[in-house]
Amino acid sequence: MIAKITMVLAFAAIAIIIGILCQKHAGSVTGFILGGRNVGPRLSAFAFGTSYFSAVIFVGYAGQFGWKYGLSATWVGIGNAILGSLLAWWVLGPRTREMTQRLGAATMPEFFGKRYHSRALRIAAIIFVFLIPYPASVYNGLSRLFGMAFGLPYEACVIGMALITCIYVVLGGYMATVVNDFLQGIVMLFGIIAVIAAVILNIGGFSEAITPLSQIPAEGSQMAGPFVSMFGPDLFNLLGVVVLTSLGTWGLPQMAQKFYAIKSGPAVKQGAIISTVFAFVVAGGSYFLGGFGRLYADKIEIGPTGLPGYDS
To answer: Can you give the pTM of this predicted structure?
Structure first.
């Protein structure tokens, strides 16, 4: 427990130190909001990836869909990498960067207002209203995770994370955010690889895991070995999940903002490659790992809907 607490405190201290070091980039409005539109491809790509795959995928999505579709849920991660990351960078990246710079827009409402010459769009609060559930879900997921790991009250976890985030964002602005996202992205990359290795080895190896998983039937399906099939027990709904989780993120302000701040030219192309590789590892690995969830059925509380429950 002491080691865990030390690691968390160290991580919080590093986040705040980064905020202090990035103060020089926050001397103007553009610097504070967009890092001076001079953010490199690696920082932008990792910031995009960590905004895309946050507590939602680690705490809920990957496990839920892995349980429902088995190993075929890996297609969701692959779709996220190709459609949600690579295609988004190709289609939105260059145009968004060029237009926001030409219009002098620093936020999405400002961009819409100047692009369509509409004051109503510029002052519209609907973006922020619908954005509230996103950070709320992130704080909710991480707080429950920290609560289970450290036995801390849920409210204390929420307040603690909010304070740390507030401090480094106020101090260093956007640049502090992307640098912290870069460090968190590295933790995510190594973390998902380590967890996959640990789970597979705990089961006895990949071959030993496939055998019992292939013997589990799926309710409403006559397919043999549905949870080890590449198309799973419900291909139509699986495709729906791929499209929803891949294309549904294109318009999220916290992700489009990464295109506003990145350097122009080759940086966008480099960022597209880095972001796609990141998505393949993190999203593909998470959904692949979720496919083995049924092998731990005796350790998971099943809710009334037939899906695994995550609340203790």
So the answer is: 0.85
